[in-house]
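Q: Hi! Curious about what Methylthioribose-1-phosphate isomerase looks like structurally. Here's the sequence.
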Amino acid sequence: MKVDGTDYRTIWLNDDGWSVGIIDQTRLPHVFTTLDLKTLDDAARAIRDMWVRGAPLIGATAAYGMALALRDDASDATLATATDVLLATRPTAINLRWALEEMEKVLSPLDPTERVAAAYKRAAEICDEDVEINAAIGKAGLALIEAIAARKPTGEAVNVLTHCNAGWLATVDWGTATAPIYMAHNAGIPVHVWVDETRPRNQGASLTAWELGHHGVPHTVIVDNAGGHLMQHGKVDLVITGTDRTTATGDVCNKIGTYLKALAAADNSIPFYVGLPSPTIDFRVEDGVAEIPIEERAMEEVSRLTGRTDAGTIATITILPDGSPAANPAFDVTPARLVAGLITERGIVDANREAIAAAFPERV
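A: Let's find out. The predicted structure is below.
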């Protein structure tokens, strides 16, 4: 995707052939800057402190983190340590574990002298595969938007509501939930996006709005609790979100607040779709509510806000009364019964065990 006319991915190998470049997403939307990752600790901190975020990008960063770790020591001990360090950074997104398992599968049988080159090769492949998967998700989801557009008066926009950031900033390129939107926009279909602010980290207001704006997609930022109101008044045609982990039975774990959007969509007969690459499906989990670990993040994310002042400086302020505690569960689970379909690289799949297994038999 483009930033001020320049093509970017969210992660790349630098010209030196070994260090890794990323966009520092904690500085967006007010400052666009990049960072270099040079060690295992750099990669782990990038994931843990959310310099990078989004399930697919977390996985890609972990893959390169493994390669960086092996540059200093390609022994079995380092391979095991790097896996443990990276796996501990964030518990909910399954792509992290998937990417590390992919790296171990390739690297474990090799002689240590062969591991570094193989690690960089597999990490690059994981990134390229993610781009291909997301492009395929975009094509599958485009058909949904085209069908709605065909029923509307000529020139009237298809209104899509999305929650959190499942855009190209959350992947290597294209995005998951946003890929169909970008493809519709590129095809000349009028499309407008309602962007949930997505408290407490405001990934919708800070990231989704930023990337849509830079690509020229019409959008409006709304407070998290406005979605149901818009649905009641016929201003939402469909909902598309992303997911950090989807169960074998079709339950979907996504940013906190997604479940409420799905409930409102069901009450207003609005289709609720989820864009996801197949590595996000965890075939080891049956019941999302009971089994998926929900990350509890620091209360400071709720109690404090960072933004740009009228003077142009970046400042962080406290918004809660002194002494008031805050809870900060980062994700919730939407039951499969509320999901109209999973938009995958192999087409739109019903959110149930049989359909998912049939679409990805090699993963079962």
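A: A fun detail: The radius of gyration is 20 Å.
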